[in-house]
Amino acid sequence: MPVPSQSHKVYPATLAQTSVQYWTALIQVWPEAQNQLSTAQQDELKTVLGLSDYIAQQLCRHPDWILILFEQGLLEEVDRQAFDHQLHKLLAAATDDEQAKKVLREFRNLHMVRLAWRDFMNYSSLEASLLDLSALAEALVIAGRDWLYRQMCMQYGTPSDSEGRPQPLLILGMGKLGGRELNFSSDIDLIFTFPEHGETVGARRSQTNQEFFIRMGQRLINLLNQLTVDGFVFRVDMRLRPYGESGPLVVSFSGLEDYYQEQGRDWERYAMVKARALGPWNGYSDELHALLKPFIYRRYIDFSAIDSLRRMKQLIAQEVRRRQLTDNIKLGAGGIREVEFVVQSFQLIRGGREPALRQQSLFGAIDVLYSLGQLEYLAVDELKHSYVLLRRVENLLQAIDDKQTQTLPNRGLDWQRLCYGLDRVNESDLRTHIEKAMGLIHQHFNATVGGMDSQEQSEHWTSQLWNIQQDDHAQALLDEQQIEDDELWPLLSHWRAVVAKRTIGPRGRETLDKLMPRLLDELTGMMKPSQAFKSVMQVLDQILTRTTYLELLCENPGARQQLVSLCCASPWVAKELANFPMLLDELIDPSQLYDTTSIDDYPSELRQYLLRVPEDDMEQQMEALRQFKLSQQLKIAAADVTGVLPVMQVSDHLTFLAEAIIEQVVHQAWHQVASRHGVPAGTSIDNMGFAIIGYGKLGGIELGYGSDLDLVFLHQNDLFGITDGDRSIEAKLFYLKLAQRIVHLFATRTTSGELYEVDMRLRPSGESGLLVSDIEGFYQYLQTEAWIWEHQALVRSRFVFGSGSMAARFNDIRAAVLKMPREQAELAKAVRDMRTKMRDHLLKIRTDEFDLKQSPGGIADIEFIGQYLVLAHANEYEDLTLWSDNVRIFEVLADLGLLPVMQAQLLTQTYCWLRDENHRLTLQHAKGVLALASVIHKTEPILELYQELLKA
Fold first, then answer.
1. How far is Cα 345 from Cα 327, in angstroms, rounded to an integer?
2. Is the terminal CB of the chain with fewer CB neighbours within 10 Å at N or C?
């Protein structure tokens, strides 16, 4: 192909200086360069060396590539079909994984240098460049897959279906790889699947197809993902698979179909638009796409996709604010993602009716939308040109140093590199074109999917109130509006004076002046505006210097309304919003705010939330866990204070939210410890041999806002040998490190606070005991050494994380310990003594006050009654060992005739009322204390029953 002339371009001095440095380094390793290259070749090489650190560093390591690139015509054109053929040929000589890794990495780096060179020198269009990168990535993945399949079939036999037909591993390329639009340093999102279950044949020991393919999948990820002296092939992200990280690495076609039919989410539909079976097309590829089609494309015109995409975009905007991303050409307003949303919204809405829209390519789909009359020519032209510019910027940006970034540079050298590659005069010129492109994209995004841009309000009386200087004028205006609240103006005037002294910048000041009239409009509609303003003021004080949050409230009437109503309803919510302003994002869409997550959906919602964060960025993962907890807790509190959720259900939600977080914390801790030391024999992420037991409120499914977690860690008892990593350690030490890491992940304070306070004092031997116990040692301790109060605590314990086999063993142990025969008089005395000791230590109130938890006749007395009756009678009645929550324990006691029905109802009703009151006071940010006179009629009968049952 003819090479475009670069003669008209200016090569700045800074680039020339960088080029000289790399040329000098190259001459040292390849002195013959000046003799073996023509003058034109030397000039071009020097130009490229200054444009990309990645190209320069690779060529200094592999100077032999330079002649290959020039003499074999690799810079002139790209034969995409050749990638696959060459790789299979090179891998045929590899006999182990290490050799295969070297082949794959060297091939990847040679051809990435080639493609980056072509990109910087404008030898190919953007569309061709993206196709080249995608074809290279696909060839590397498929060649690695095929080499591994042959190796493993020789070792383990060939996976086959019931009729003996060999079963292949199919790989779905997601995202930009699926759309053949991969950018230079992108990671690759994959899903592994296989057609049918069965077993391997041809080896001494057979194994199931799923076991074979999981092992193969793990090795393939390692082949591609592991960092060696030659770098990596691609960062591999498997989190889009069914059930995310907690799901099996590979599932069958039927498993895939069942998941998407029964549990597939809107965001997974969006992701599946780009899904494409990689490698040579065959009948299995057809079958796979046919089973996915009904999930992705609905037979009817599906406008619900618009709301889903809008919510997803809001989440992305929220993430941009939280991570304080600026100059981000992918996620920011008008970025690459918005073009994808525009096109994919039409695909999801109309793809069921229009087969031509069922394609992975954005360029192809946008042309179809024009031919169908869904987008006008001007819209298509502006979107395509703007998208092409942003994708070219992104590609060159990443080709500078093979880094996955979409943020515009912060140093002049990199701006010069971009300007040279994009033929722009300087940074200002290029920025102007980028800003224009993003502005056009955002307009079309708002017209199609809908945005949240602000609309100027007309002049309002509250604007006058905010700007008035004289007290008498302000009071007259309030009187005119019939606002009868003498405290409002003094409070507002004082706060305004304080704010005037704060440094918030001109943009912040302008936004505040727009916001306050609108906010005052909401506040003056409340029963007591001054009281409402006091609550809201806490939040405003925290966000004055964070203009993005002032803008959020200014532009979103729904968010303002929710801020005012929730702060008035609950000082606790106001304090949470003040401490963690990122929660304001949750107020944008009231329908979403009050739509609490289903009890069973917390694990999948959390997995989806964590997909936004790079898997290997532990700091961001920890921050995301805290943000998810805070946002979900706010949704629960919002539903709580407005009466949508009764207290019992609030505790259920808070408990299952905590369990979902526990699961992810354990997974993160496992990855961190395993990456350093390997794992004990016979264990994996799906079968850790590790369990967590919840005690207290977590065990009783009675968590409240701000509750800590009482946890006990257990591991399997058959621990021998060492872990399988490079820095191997004894298996018991592995579990100790795992437990320490879990506690650390919970306790570390990030910008979003602590995840949960964890209390480990209920483990065997308390604070002097091991952090993690072997499960049989735990049983022995409970049988022979534990105090009665530890058996009481066991009544309120529950298995919250671990394998099914460990859950079954723990439940057996718990039942056996609770059923141990006990002499009732001795038991009653021990329980009474512990209750007295607790009360003496914790009860600190005046004589006319009642502590809802610790006062006689309060929550603790009711809990002790339930625990005493279980320990006293479980030896005869096994049903008493089934439940860990008080309400169901009292139900069973009544059903068994061990407690009269009237007494059981009294205990349950009073217990729920006391918890209700305690809960209400928490939301009011008040102590759990009431006037004794207001509760004695309810608690006196409880105290009498306590004394009767425990012979006190």
1. 25
2. N
